[in-house]
Amino acid sequence: MSYKRPPRDAQRRRVYLAETPLGGRRLPLLPDCAAFADQVVGSLWWQARFPAHGLAEMPRFRPGQGARHAFFRLDEDGPTITLPRRYRTTGVVLHELCHWALAEEDDLPNHGRTFARLLLDATNEFGGGQRGEALAANYAQHRVHVGRPPHTDPDGRLRYAWDERLHIGRGRIIDVHHHEVAGAGNITTTCTRGVFEAWGRNRSKVRLRYQSELLVVPATSVWDARRVSNVDDLLDVFGAGRPERAPAAHRPVPQDAPHQ
Fold first, then answer.
1. b/e for 90-100, b at 16 or more Cβ within 10 A?
2. Phi/psi at 154 (5° precision)
3. Sign of the CA dihedral running 15, 16, 17, 20
4. CA torsion, ordered 126, 129, 134, 135, to nearest 10 deg
5. What are the mean pLDDT values of the chain's consecutive 10-residue runs (260 residues total)?
6. Is 41 strand, coil or helix?
7. For 88-126, what is the HEC assignment?
8. If you count Cβ atoms within 10 Å of the first and of the last residue's Cβ in the chain, which end, N or C, has fewer?
9. Sign of dihedral through CA atoms 159, 163, 167, 169?
10. Measured distance CA(206)–CA(219) in Å, rounded
C-alpha cells in the first residue's frame, strides 16, 4: 500500500488549542499508557468502528527520549506512539490512537473534520461526558470544524469521514455509497455516482449531477464517499465522449501515512 501526502492540515493548531487545556489523567509509566490503550482498543465501542485495528495490531509505545512532542508514526517494523514523559496522559494517548485509527485514510487532513469528530467521540466514551462537553465547547471557541457522526455500513461497522470526503470533493465526481429502501420496505445498498454540487437544506440531502440529471441522496443514508479518478468514468459523468450511454442514477461500483 502506498501512502499519499494528505491534504493541507489547516486546523492543526486550532485542534491543539482546543485540546491542550483539558489535560487528562496522568499515566506516569509507559506500561500505564499501554494498559489504558488496551482498555480503549479492546472495547466494543472501538471494535464497532475499527475492527481491523485490534489489540494484536496495537502500536508500540516508545519513551521519546529527547523528543519535543508526542506523535504517532508508521515505522518499518510497525506503528509506534512516542510519548515523552510530560505527554503521558489519557488525553494524549487517545489523540494518538485516533491518528492510528485514521492512518490509512490518506485523502483526509491529519487534524481535519473527521479527526476532530473521532477525538470528540472517543473523549466522551473514555474521558467522561464532562470532559467531552468541555472539548466540544473549546472546539466552538477555536472554530474547529467537526465532522458529522459516523453512519453504519452494510456490515454493521460505524464509518467516519463520509461527510469530509464530500466537503473536500465538492465540484468533483464522487461515488456515494448509501442505503436505499426497496420494495416491501427492504433496505438495500447502492452507489450513486455524480459531481457533488452542494448539500441540500440543513445538510439533509446530498446533491449530485450526472450529466444533465440532478440526483438527490438523503444524507442520513450515506455511509461512504470516494472520489472517482478513472478517465473513462469522468468522461461518462460529464457527458463527453459517451453520447450513446443514457444517464444512470445508480450504477453499482466495487468497494474499494503516517499522521502526527
1. bbbbbbbbbbb
2. -60, -20
3. positive
4. 40
5. 68 96 92 97 98 96 88 93 94 97 95 98 94 97 98 96 96 95 77 95 94 93 91 56 36 38
6. helix
7. CEHHHHHHHHHHHHCCCCCCCCCCCHHHHHHHHHHHHHH
8. N
9. positive
10. 6
- CA-nearest of 16, 60, 5 to 38 is 60
**Sign of the C-alpha dihedral computed for residues 7, 13, 18 and 20 taken in this order:** positive
Q: Could you tell me the three cell numbers for 98?
A: 485516533
pLDDT in tens, 152-206: 999 999 999 999 999 999 999 999 999 997 766 678 899 999 999 999 999 999 9
Q: What's the CA gap between 139 and 146, in Å, rounded? A: 8
Question: Can you read off the three cell numbers belonging to residue 191?
Answer: 452507489
For residue 23, give the amino acid letter: G
Quote the pLDDT of residue 66.
78
* 158-238 to CATH, choices 2.30.30.100, 2.10.10.70, 3.30.530.20, 3.40.50.2300: 2.30.30.100
Q: Tell me how crowded residue 118 is: count the other CB atoms within 10 A of its CB.
A: 24
DSSP lists the bridge partners of residue 159 as: 151
- Statement: the pTM of the whole predicted model exceeds 0.90: no
Length of the chain equals: 260
Q: Where are the domains of the chain?
A: 12-147, 158-238
Predicted local distance difference test score (pLDDT) of residue 55: 97
- Strand 78-82's sheet: what is its strand order? 60-62, 78-82, 71-75
Tell me which residue of 151, 162, 166 sits closest to 48, measured CA to CA.
Answer: 151
